[in-house]
Amino acid sequence: MKPLYLVVPLVLLALLASNRLHHPNDQAMLTHHQRHSAQFDALVRMLSADPQILSLTQEGQATLRPGHPPLSAQRLAEYQRRMAQLAIHRLSAYHEPTSIDFEFSHRGRPRGGSVKGFAYREEIPTALVPQLEAHRAQGSNAFFAHQRIRGAWYLYHFEP
Questions:
Q1: How many CA atoms within 13 Å lie on the side-chain side of 89?
Q2: I need a labelling partner for 139 at 20 to 30 A (CA). Which of 9, 14, 22, 63 fits?
C-alpha cells in the first residue's frame, strides 16, 4: 500500500486537471449572462464607441485597426476591469455588421483549443442550434455553433 502522503497529492492533482478539461455547462453560462446582462450590454456599447478594437485580453493586450488612434491607458484599464468582473478572458470584435465574441472558457492548446463563450451578433448566425450541449452530444468532431440567449446575444462553442 502506498503512503498516504503520496496518494493525496495525486488525487488532488487529478481533480484539478479534470476541472480544467471541461467547459462550464450551458445552464451555468446562461445564469452568468442573466445575472450580468446590463454589464454585458454596457461592454457592447463601449466597443461600439471604440471601433479600432479588434481584440483585447483581460491582461490588456490589444490588437487595433491600423491607422486608428490607440486606446488611452484609462480606457484600457476600464475594459480590463469590466472583463475581469464578467470573467471574460478575451474578446474579438468585428464591425459592419457588429459581431463580438466574449471568450469565457478555453480548453486545450493555446492556439486551436476548444472555446466556449458569449456572442453578440447583429445578424443571426448560420450555425444556430436549440441547445449547445445536445448538439455536441451528437458526436460532431469539429463544429462552431450558437444557442440564442436573448435578442442579439448567444452562447457559442467552437471545437476545432
A1: 9
A2: 14
The pLDDT tens digits for 26-67 are 999 999 999 999 999 999 999 999 999 999 999 999 999 999
Q: Which of 1-10, 21-30, 35-44, 150-159 has the lowest mean pLDDT?
A: 1-10
Q: Residue for cell digits 455588421?
A: 97
The contacts of residue 36 (CB under 8 Å, 6+ apart) are 85, 86
| Cell matching residue 50 | 471604440
Beta carbons of 149 and 118 less than 8 angstroms apart: yes
CA 61 from chain center: how many Å? Answer: 16
CA distance 120 to 40: 9
Q: What residues contact 99, with CB distance under 8 A and at least 6 apart? A: 93, 119, 120, 121, 122, 123
Instruction: Name which of 150, 159, 115 is nearest 33 in CA terms.
Output: 150
Classified as helix, coil or strand, 40 is helix
Query: Cell numbers 481584440 label which residue?
Result: 55
